[in-house]
Design goal:
This protein has 150 residues and is mainly alpha-helical. It contains five helices and no strands. It has two domains: 56 residues, no CATH class; 70 residues, no CATH class. Helices cover 71% and strands 0% of the residues. It starts with 16 loop residues before the first helix and ends with a helix.
Length: 150
């Protein structure tokens, strides 16, 4: 029988923190070194340190996800992909895909018809706008589905 704790354990029953911290440090070091290596100007070391510090906690979370056995986490859902929340999210993302197709098609048509609109538009601007739209659309669809079905 496996014992359950708030933070879980590894499959062998040990604490997950040494492994998770190791992965977090590795992620931070790799991203910090990459920022330092590719930074332009004299502030490469500062960029590397800031990115390493900012990426440690997400790396730690990734490490925890990789080393913890889900069955040992107290209150964890047995099959999360079968939960009602997962079904709501799945429906929201399917609807957002179709919305993105329509919006991106209409935007491409408008930019080809009105050349003044595309003069100051860069590819990164367009991609950020698509990401913001997709995130807002998924959020709205998820909340509407949740409200309708609960």
């Amino acid at each position: 029988m496996t014992t359950q704790s708030t933070w879980g354990t590894t499959r062998s029953g040990r604490s997950p923190w040494p492994g998770a911290i190791g992965i977090g440090v590795a992620v931070a070091v790799v991203l910090g070194l990459a920022a330092w290596a590719f930074a332009s100007g004299t502030n490469g070391v500062v960029y590397g340190i800031v990115l390493a510090a900012a990426s440690f906690m997400p790396g730690l979370a990734l490490g925890w996800i990789l080393v913890v056995d889900r069955r040992t986490v107290k209150g964890a859902v047995r099959n999360p992909e079968e939960s009602i929340e997962a079904q709501w999210y799945d429906r929201a993302t399917r609807g957002t895909f179709h919305d993105l197709l329509v919006v991106m098609g209409l935007t491409a048509m408008a930019l080809s018809v009105v050349p003044q609109w595309r003069d100051g538009l860069t590819a990164s601007d367009a991609l950020v706008a698509c990401m913001v739209f997709a995130a807002a659309d998924v959020s709205a669809r998820y909340l509407l589905t949740k409200r309708r079905e609960s």
